[in-house]
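Hypothesis: this fold can be encoded by more than one sequence.
Test: take the C-alpha cells below, design a sequence, compare later.
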C-alpha cells in the first residue's frame, strides 16, 4: 500500500534513516494494523501483543539503518514483530507457569479448572519456545501459514520466494516441531479424553 504521492515503504524507511522526523510515523501508520494482527496471533494475548508491538516498533526505529533491501519492508517488519512476540512469551513464561488464578481457591472443581488453564498456558509457552528454535526461514513460513492462516501463495509473496519453497519450509519446520512437541498430544488427550486431541501429521518436503 502506498499513500498519495506514491512514496514507497523503502523510501520512507530511507528517509527515516536520513533524519526525516515524520517518515517512520508514516510508515508505521501504513502497516500498524497488520503488525498488531501478527503480534496478537503470535502471543495469543492482547496485553502481551501490545507490549510486543511496542518492543517491535522500538527495534524497527533503532535498527532501520540495518535494512539492506534484500526483502520487502513489510517482510522486515513482520520478522521484527514475530521475534518480539516470541521474546515476550519467553520472558513471561515463569510468571505464567507459577501464577494461579484467584478462583483456584474456590473448591476442588475450581482447582481442576485452574490446573487445566495453567497446563494449557504452559503448552503455549512450550510451543512458542519450539518455534523460536526453528531456523528463521522455517519459522517465518510456519508462522505465516500455520499460525496466522495465510495461504501458501500469500506467504510466498510476503517472503519473496516460490510457493514450493514455502511448502518445503513448512514441511521441514513441522517435522522439527513434531519431534519437540509430540508429547503435548498425549497431554491434550489426558486433559480432554473425549476431544479430538489430534495434531496434523507433518508431510514430507524436499528443500528448505
Amino acid at each position: 500500500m502506498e499513500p498519495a504521492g506514491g512514496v514507497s515503504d523503502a523510501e520512507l524507511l530511507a528517509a527515516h534513516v536520513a533524519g526525516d522526523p515524520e517518515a517512520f510515523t508514516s510508515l508505521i501508520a501504513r502497516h500498524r494494523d497488520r503488525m498488531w494482527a501478527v503480534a496478537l496471533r503470535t502471543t495469543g494475548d492482547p496485553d502481551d501483543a501490545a507490549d510486543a508491538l511496542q518492543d517491535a516498533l522500538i527495534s524497527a526505529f533503532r535498527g532501520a539503518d540495518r535494512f539492506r533491501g534484500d526483502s520487502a519492508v513489510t517482510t522486515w517488519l513482520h520478522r521484527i514483530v514475530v521475534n518480539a512476540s516470541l521474546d515476550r512469551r519467553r520472558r513471561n513464561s515463569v510468571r505464567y507457569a507459577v501464577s494461579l488464578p484467584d478462583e483456584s481457591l474456590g473448591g476442588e472443581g475450581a482447582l481442576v479448572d485452574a490446573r487445566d488453564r495453567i497446563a494449557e498456558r504452559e503448552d503455549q509457552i512450550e510451543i512458542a519456545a519450539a518455534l523460536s528454535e526453528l531456523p528463521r526461514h522455517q519459522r517465518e513460513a510456519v508462522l505465516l501459514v500455520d499460525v496466522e492462516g495465510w495461504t501458501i501463495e500469500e506467504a510466498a509473496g510476503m517472503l519473496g520466494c516460490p510457493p514450493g519453497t514455502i511448502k518445503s519450509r513448512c514441511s521441514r519446520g513441522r517435522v522439527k516441531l513434531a519431534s519437540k512437541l509430540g508429547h503435548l498430544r498425549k497431554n491434550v488427550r489426558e486433559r480432554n479424553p473425549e476431544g479430538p486431541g489430534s495434531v496434523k501429521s507433518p508431510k514430507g518436503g524436499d528443500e528448505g
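Residues 42 and 85 are 6 Å apart (CA to CA). The two ends are 29 Å apart (CA to CA).
Hypothesis status: open.
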